[in-house]
Design goal:
- The complex is a heterodimer of chains A (about 300) and B (about 350).
- With about 300 residues, chain A is mostly helical.
- Helices cover about 75% and strands about 5% of the residues of chain A.
- Chain A contains 11 helices and 2 strands, in the order ααααββααααααα.
- Chain A has helices spanning about 5-35, 40-60, 65-85, 95-115, 140-165, 165-175, 175-180, 185-215, 220-235, 240-265, 270-285, and strands at about 130-135, 135-140.
- A two-stranded antiparallel sheet of chain A has the order 1-2.
- The longest helix of chain A has about 30 residues, at about 5-35.
- Chain A is globular and about 60 Å long.
- The termini of chain A are far apart.
- Chain B is mainly alpha-helical and about 350 residues long.
- Chain B contains 17 helices and 4 strands.
- In chain B, the strands form 2 sheets. Chain B has a two-stranded antiparallel sheet with strand order 1-4. Chain B has a two-stranded antiparallel sheet with strand order 2-3.
- In chain B, a hairpin with a 2-residue loop joins strand 2 (about 165-170) and strand 3.
- In chain B, helix 6 (about 105-125) packs antiparallel against helix 12 (about 225-250).
- Classes of the chains: A mainly alpha (about 300), B mainly alpha (about 350).
- The interface between A and B is large, with 42 and 43 residues.
- Chain B: One of its GO terms (molecular function) is branched-chain amino acid transmembrane transporter activity.
- Chain B: Keywords: Cell membrane, Membrane, Transmembrane, Transmembrane helix.
- Chain B: It comes from Bradyrhizobium valentinum.
């Protein structure tokens, strides 16, 4: 048994898992606030990463300036999507809404390929030192940064929902739209804000992944991995999404370990989350922390 | 009421039989028969390229019809249809290569095997609904694609599997011209089958599940049975379409059964009209002709300023992908009932032509 590899993969899984958690969190945010299942979440990551890459390489903007510009752009981008495309869909059947987000993901991924090409583009170097030695384990600096950023975003999100006025308004809207509206909350702006925050948070995750792996069309795969994570945690639980993301990240890497050490099936790494997804849906469709849907006639 | 020749000015149906009849007037029935006869002459009139487009419309039309049973009639969403389409293609190739079964029998057999697989993945459908189901079918798509890449005994792995040409009682059909009639026969049979399915008790049960599943259950419709059944049926037609596709190309590779193909299938039924049988065929024709017409447009615009600005030659693939997404959004926002609805409006306009009010 290769302990060194196992530990390396577990660290890897934790880092990737927290990123999944962050993306799943922004996915759940949209679902909770607006009842829209966003199949274009991965493309939000992609757009954010490309915009940041573009600023940094084409215009030589320093990172500390390029990142905020990207985030502002994504904030406005999220609002724009909500107003232009999702707002006319309010009240339409769920199939139509799902289809619109699927179509959006097609449009965005094709647009990005058209504008920036299909090749992997390396991200400009941000850190001077490549590796940090922690307890005798070589850890890449970008991994540490990724972990720190993810945790910071989770804490920020928790603060936003627990303590800020706007976060409370969003929670009220998620709980009951009519009651929220009668209390003077503008449901329209809450919807737009949910998309804006989700797009911004996704863009941060996208940039982090881009710094680690470079930017390419494959980045949107993170959007697909969101589903196992969000389903495992429960579709309407923000905390559950984070936990689900970490579990899926670890599961992927454990599958990778078992595969490379014992099974030699190849590619188990990529497909394991989907088997997990089917099993979860069979046993516990509402996830670990999701609210069970009870219907009365 | 089958004796009428023209559409009556109002609703004068007096029996259930008149309400569920396939052709409301004799004219519509004769027009359909005349249309099919006309299409039979197509291989002798049109050139090879248009013939291949017609064959594609037929093949994808059958698979899209299956998807319309699930999405349009039963109201369950499925994002994994292309994987079933691929499964049918591989199954038919495998059956004819491995066991030497004549291709004539392989195609329906592939449909049956694919239906069995569809039932397995439809089992979660019995418990889930709406978006949970969408996500489950998404997982099915990835799992089946992984299976295609993994199961070399079945699909040939990275080497594309070869499929025998279509033969009937020892007589080998060669070329598109003859294959066209095979596809046409399958299209007619499949569309007739589904039209009659929707008129039957089972078909009405599917529609009831879509319209209000709680009411349907209270009326004694077994939800589990009909949800799973609709998945099985959808997979059956996907399998038949896939098998026809395999024997048309005579080679089945791993490419072309991904999620993008599933999205195109969904686009076909949305553009045609959810829950409309003839609309499915219209939507399929639209989606097959859309990329082709973009190709024609890019050829026509070669070296013009637009071409230089967009870089059409290198980017046509991305523009095509984008067009598919944009078309879906446009139809969902502006014409959610699809082309079938538009067609009905045109008919209604001409029915009362000079005095439309």
């Amino acid at each position: 048994m290769n302990t060194q590899l196992l530990i390396q993969l577990l660290v890897n899984g934790l880092v990737v898992g927290t990123l999944y958690g962050v993306v799943a969190m922004s996915f759940v945010l949209i679902y909770k606030a607006t009842q829209v299942v966003n199949f274009a979440q991965g493309e939000l990551l992609l757009v954010g990463a490309w915009v940041c890459w573009w600023l940094l390489t084409k215009y030589q903007v320093p990172f500390y300036l390029g990142m905020p510009i990207t985030l502002v752009f994504m904030f406005l981008f999220g609002i724009a999507i909500q107003i232009v495309i999702l707002r006319p869909m309010i009240g339409e059947p769920i199939i139509s809404v799902i289809m619109v987000t699927i179509a959006l993901s097609t449009v965005f991924s094709a647009l990005m390929k058209w504008m920036f090409g299909v090749n992997l583009q390396p991200f400009p170097r941000i850190f001077q030192t490549q590796n940090v030695n922690i307890l005798g384990l070589q850890v890449q600096t970008v991994y540490l940064m990724s972990l720190a950023v993810s945790v910071a975003m989770m804490v920020g999100m928790a603060w936003f929902f627990r303590l800020s006025k706007y976060g409370l308004a969003m929670r009220a809207t998620a709980f009951n739209q009519q009651v929220a509206q009668s209390l003077g909350i503008s449901v329209k702006s809450v919807f737009a804000m949910a998309w804006a925050i989700s797009a911004t948070v996704s863009a941060v995750a996208g940039v982090v992944v881009a710094v680690v792996n470079g930017v390419s069309a494959g980045l949107s795969a993170y959007g697909v991995k969101v589903f196992p994570a969000a389903i495992l945690g429960g579709l309407d639980s923000v905390g559950g999404a984070v936990l689900g993301g970490i579990i899926i990240g670890l599961l992927e890497n454990v599958a990778h370990f078992l595969d490379s050490e014992y099974l030699h099936w190849g590619n188990l790494y990529e497909i394991a989350p989907f088997y997990a997804l089917i099993i979860i849906l069979m046993i516990k469709p509402y996830g670990l922390f999701g609210t069970k849907d009870i219907e009365r006639v | 009421m089958a004796g009428q020749t023209l559409i009556p000015a109002g609703d004068f149906r007096t029996s259930y039989a008149a309400d569920t009849t396939v052709f409301p007037t004799t004219t519509s029935r004769n027009a359909m028969i005349a249309g099919i006869v006309l299409v039979c002459f197509a291989p002798h009139v049109v050139n090879e390229y248009i013939l291949s487009l017609l064959i594609q419309i037929g093949i994808f039309g059958i698979a899209a019809l299956g998807l319309n049973i699930v999405v349009g009639f039963t109201g369950q969403i499925s994002i994994g249809h292309a994987a079933f389409f691929g499964f049918g293609a591989f199954t038919s190739a495998y059956l004819s290569n491995r066991f030497g079964i004549p291709v004539f029998f392989c195609i329906p057999l592939a449909g049956v095997v694919t239906a069995a697989v569809g039932l397995v993945f439809g089992l979660p459908a019995a418990r889930l609904k709406g978006l949970y189901l969408a996500i489950a079918t998404l997982a099915a798509q990835y799992i089946l694609l992984d299976f295609f890449a993994r199961a070399e005994w079945f699909t040939g792995g990275s080497v594309p599997a070869s499929a025998e040409p279509f033969s009937i009682f020892g007589y080998m059909l060669r070329g598109d011209k003859q294959y066209f009639y095979v596809v046409l026969a399958y299209v007619i049979v499949c569309y007739l089958l589904v039209t009659n399915l929707i008129r039957s008790r089972d078909g009405r049960a599917l529609v009831a599940v879509r319209d209000h599943y709680l009411s349907a259950e209270i009326m004694g419709i077994n939800l589990t049975k009909y949800r799973t059944l609709s998945f099985g049926l959808a997979a059956f037609f996907a399998g038949v379409g896939g098998a026809l596709y395999a024997h048309y190309n005579q080679v089945v590779s791993n490419e072309g059964f991904g999620i993008d193909r599933s999205i195109i299938f969904l686009a076909m039924i949305i553009i045609g009209g959810l829950g409309s049988i003839m609309g499915t065929l219209m939507g399929t024709a639209f989606m097959v002709l859309l990329p082709e017409s973009m190709e024609w447009l890019s050829v026509a615009l070669r070296d013009s300023p637009i071409d230089q600005f967009l870089g059409l030659k290198n980017n046509i693939a991305f523009l095509r992908e984008m067009a598919i997404g944009v078309i879906i959004i446009v139809f969902l926002v502006f014409e959610p009932d699809g082309l079938a609805h538009r067609w009905r409006q045109i008919k209604a306009y001409w029915k009362l032509y000079p005095f439309s009010h």
